[in-house]
Amino acid sequence: MRKVACDLHMHSCLSPCGDDTMTPATAAGLSRLAGVEVAALTDHNTVRNCPAFVEACEAYGVDPLCGMELTTSEDIHLICLFRTLDEAASFEEAVWQKRVHIPNDPRFFGNQYIVSADDEIIGSEPDLLPNATQLSLGEAYRLAVEYGGVCYPAHVDRDANGIIAVLGTFPAEPPFRIAEYREPKNRETYPEQYPNLKGLLAVYGSDSHRPEAIPEQAEFSLEVGDEGSPADAVFQLLRQQMEIT
Fold this sequence. Notes:
alpha/beta; single chain
């Protein structure tokens, strides 16, 4: 077994709440400086900056996962991770059909830039990204699994868009087997308050929206098997955890 330093929740300049300087290459480079071995880009309801992120990670020596922070119809945030760009892109196509397409106004919400691995702006997303999709909690979970992904609630201990804050509890269904915490200390106290969290794999992501928000040193690691690349091993662990019933 080995420990792999991870950051499984980061945003880029494609998320309107993200800083324009938070390019995929910046996220990858600062992750490397922090000692992160496996990093996931998880913009709101899109993966369109993941190609640049994968390319930048390969250049900096970080092993990437492709992801999305999906907003359900209940206004709950879920982390959806995929091992390949193709799987992530196919998932995004399915999510696109369930998005509520409201034009973005950068003056109020922020820019939504699609960039290259060299920080060149190559496009922008015209419709506002973070608003709720038409996918319910269960539908979003099943869709991510159908496309070969891993799906779990983001920041269960946060008021805004956290599953517990929205529902008042942590539900038994969908059968989540992973939960992301905003504050590592809550990994001990929350399962006592919400029994359905007991036995779930606790993960952490920086949820960075700005370069300065990326921790200077990696703050979370997972113990994984010895075989395969770090990202392969992390993704395999997460997938195996989801298969526990």
